[in-house]
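User: Here's a chain of 505 residues. Predict its fold as tokens.
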Amino acid sequence: MAKTLMFGIDGGTWTVIQPMIEKGELPNLAKLTNEGATVKLRTMRPAASPMLWTTIATGKIPDKHGVQLFGDTSKTVRCKRLWNIYEEMGHPVGLCGYLMTWPPDITNGFMIPDLFALGPDTQPPDLKFLQEFTLAQRRTRGAASHSPGYYVELARKMQQHGVRASTLRSALGFMTRRTMTNMPPKERFWRKSLVQPQIYADVFARLYEEYNPVYAGFHFHLTDTLSHKYWQYLFSEDFDDVPEEAVARYGQVIPQAYQLADEILGRFLGLLDEDTTVIVLSDHGFGPMDPDPIPVLNIKLVMKTIDAPDYIVPMRIGRRWYLSAKDRQDKGVPQHVIDRLSAAYIEETEAPLFGVTEYPGYIRLRLPRYQVDLTGTGVFPDLASYPLSELLKYDTEKVNSGAHHDDGVVIVHGKSVKAGATIEGMRILDVVPTLLALDGLPVASDMDGQVMTEAIDDAFLRTHPVKYIDTYEEEEQSTDDTPEGEMTAEERDKVMGRLEALGYL
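Assistant: Prediction complete.
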């Protein structure tokens, strides 16, 4: 059977990729682009990565797969993802870093969960040391939290599982430089961020050779993280008053992330046989954030005032806040939370404090454009009143300058791909149906995407016409929608910490 490698570049955009290809800075992406089919991929709203990557992996809309926002886990997913389909056919699969893969949901192959994992579980379990280290780094924000002996033993384990000496030297070099120099936090952040993907790529390469998976996926999230924080330095002409010295210092941060992704991709390409289909894709694109000052909500104060339960997880995308519940399959966001937010108003004008919109399993809060001086009082009837200046502040420092945009990236390469094709109108829903067709497998009629036949070689289509089946799901679906447990306060704090570190809070 043909194999598939999915390489996810989170937030990848042609705005960055195309100029870098033209400069010869992304040789592996250039090769795939020149020999394969390319797409400007259309995402969906809200552009929340857990929902988008689950939609990509299922070919189904969120109402079917169940994942909406951060705080969900693999237990939330209601239908099969592409790797589940291959595993149930008896084939080994392997994933590293794909969102919503904690806890692991496979047994035949390997799975290292994503950066929002709430625990160290891996498949096989002897890889837990990697996740334990990553979770410890998050809790301590990278500060030294172990004895020298621990790091010696960690390096030994890493080497046993495929981490190369050059990667370990790179990690040691960063730690030494951080200790010996007065590195600014903004520089420390991106330099530290370059270390983890290299470690996980080394382990993935070793596991790929060991398990020889029919379907494999590697998720590279750094492009999204750094684009949020450093966009203004790469595209300073789109912003006012970006200091020249800052552009000189940080203008190559985002390109370095893309170059690292390209290097890792090139290493993986060297492991593949000629029958492997490679798809490189992003869940959304990137661009400049709204130039107007953004009112940043004191979400912790609001959550406390309205008595929101611990399982409610807030997330900010631009001017909008999203509140989701881990147990949404049962009762979702409590009605008292919705009612209290809807009733809040500005005392002086009697205008609503929030625009509240309900969706299945979550709600959206839209913040109106306030006066810059934030004069006035926000009222939560029968609960509390606060000066607007206590409820909100303006993000005048522009901690984040990049925002999710609609157009993402797809590059498909393989024997059954129509070389040189440029595809228009492809949605993230269309990825799985198209990959199944490229592999000669039937597409499920209950998937909401369609096969992009424009990406498939004509000769292959003649010998392998697109076939359909009703579904890949079991005939007897469970009717028990009761969640396996609401998110604990500790788990919620972990999710909140990751959202804050990545710029969503």
